[in-house]
């Protein structure tokens, strides 16, 4: 692979604590409302204005991405994507790929320089972690040569085990 202008990072942590990142990605639900996991953490940290703005954008479809303000979060934007429910929204591979693709395209459209992704669909939506990682990394890899505004793409993993898996796999795409 050639050298790209985009820096890729893997960190262990909380998606709501990415202070140096312009846009964080929410693993949302179709109604774009507070839920469990990532969506719960983001809505709680962002405050009520987020739920209100989201009402006018919902519902969204599987694989779709929409952008909002980040309210009380330390970021400029939140990009909300609806991941596939494993075993239900098929083909899952296509829908999960679309989440990453559409989030990246929306970031470019808004001239965003940095974005942080959680591991979409791997919590409540039941996507096997290793398969989801492969799709996430492959989709980001395919995007790299098209990047214009984006200079930093960060993957934020919640557990040690998930972090280690990403750390192990990231070099395969760089
Ligand atoms: P989905 O419904 O798309 O599966 P979840 O929010 O349930 O989304 O989980 C997606 C992934 O995010 C899981 O791997 C989960 O461990 C992780 N996660 C949960 N809370 C956070 C958080 N605050 N920051 C980053 N990752 C998180």
Automatic annotation (TrEMBL):
Source organism, top-level taxon: Bacteria
Entry-linked SMART domains: A1pp (SM00506)
A Pfam family of this chain: Macro
Start and end residues of each Macro domain: 1-174
Protein name: O-acetyl-ADP-ribose deacetylase (Regulator of RNase III), contains Macro domain
